[in-house]
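User: Hello, can you help with two protein structures?

Assistant: Certainly.
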Amino acid sequence: MKPRVRIAATRTPDGGEMLLYQHDRDFSITINGQDLMHSRQHKSEQELARLGCAHLAGRKAPSILIGGLGMGYTLRQALDMLSPHAQVVVGELLGAVVEWNLEFLGELNGRPLEDERVEIRKGDVVELVARSRDRFDAILMDIDNGPCAMTDSGNQRLYSRQGIEACRRALRAQGCLAVWSAALGRKFEQRLMQCNFHVRRFRVP
């Protein structure tokens, strides 16, 4: 049996340790010893893109924002659904995650970062959203573990009422905000409705 091998490490803004492991052809990422993501478990990331971009079928040149690169599964699924003239902005807080995708993880998804439709924006996605107005047809958020921050406590701003309102301003008419969450978040859903979003919840096995 092949061992699990640590192949890269970085620090989060909160000082936590993020590690990248490889086990044969599989990869996993941990934060302070807790599993954050695994290459064998990615259906929910793909579903985030399917749900968030479903209304863009046939749209000639949509613009979308993906908050959080992860292992690239949401990005790959979105690219497969969107037209050749689409623009996909990926906001990723940790430069190391971008480097890991380029160096180690690209083969998992056909190297989506090399697609000419993709623009990587390193830094705080909350600030990126706040600077945008009527820019995106869809915003797909997979930041930390959903509304309960795991990597950077500053990301809690994104899930506050102010953050939700900023997302609404960044969306174009009939735009869609899709949010990945590891747990049921009724308070977050209530905030969305208070900000005039029509809310639907989907559970991925």
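That covers the first. Now for the second protein you mentioned:
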Amino acid sequence: MREKVLKALMQLFAIIIGPRTNNKNGRQIIETFLHQQLRESSVEEYLELFDGFYAHYQRKQSEEDKKEKKLALNSVKVLKICTQINEDLDIRQKMVVMIRLLEFIKSGTEVSEQELEFVQTVSESFFFS
């Protein structure tokens, strides 16, 4: 998987995780995904990238007062990322991404409405029913 796609996926995971109190389980899912895609030496680099995106989106969520506006902006970002990587992934890679996203959102205590909407956006962008 190309570097551009992996960076976009790290950003996508960081957006979708939302304001969880503990992202440890989600981070483990990302780490497993990265181990399947990369050499060992590159895994930590992408985990750090994810951590940076995650911290950025956590700060933005705590700064913004209007939930609807934040959700709309993040939805646009998710759609933009999916459009950007859609052409670079084959069907197998898209399936792996979808499975990891589903595992990722399920790693929390509950699946939020926002997480479900983001996964539906990704699914539609990848042309999955």
